[in-house]
Amino acid sequence: MTPASDRNPAFGIMNHHSPSNRPSAKRGKVSTSLDRRAERLVVQGLRGWMAGYETGDIACWEAVWNDYCRELGHEKAKRVVSELAAWVRVLRNGAGRPIDCYPRPCRFMCRDECLALRLLGGCQKGHGPIASDSACKLIASSRVSEVLEAARCYAEELADAGLELDPVTDEMMTAISERPAPSSLS
After folding, report:
1. Torsion angles phi and psi, residue 23, rounded to 5
2. What's the rounded Cα separation, in Å, for the pair 146 and 106?
3. Are 94 and 88 in contact (CB under 8 A)?
4. Total domains in the fold of the chain
5. Cβ distance 83 to 151 under 8 Å?
6. pLDDT per position as a tens digit, 39-87
7. Cα–Cα distances in Å, from 59 out to 47, 53, 89?
8. pLDDT tops 50 at residue 88
9. Distance, CA of 43 to CA of 115 (rounded, Å)
């Protein structure tokens, strides 16, 4: 039997070693880690915003904007994307290293993306220690308070727009950590 983290319907964590992730295994519909709207928008938003910074191509940010508008409508999207942009800017400036992200169309998450979701989910649910721990694993400790504040603002706008994030458990983090980092795939 696969661990609970490999079967979580919210994230559909599929460990690359699990039998249910092999094409020959008999199974029903395989859910993916980005099946839920809230998590998909957050992770694809992070990916797109980071790609915009890395490439200087405004089309990356426009794609994120279009995703949020399509899902939330113009007015809600304006507020949420504004906070996304602020959060990513602070996260990127505080990291002291590149934040790993899989390519935009990838169905799965890497460790940094999962930590980002865990950070936002912790802020949204009022779990300060989880949010702080996640922030510390993503960035330099001297900037944690800035990242936490930006994450709290983004998490609040997500919630106001009806985007409630599911918790990211330690078990899920372990399963995700077994995946290769995006930088090792190039």
Report:
1. -55, -30
2. 29
3. no
4. 1
5. no
6. 999 999 999 999 999 999 999 999 999 999 999 999 999 999 999 999 9
7. 13, 11, 17
8. yes
9. 11
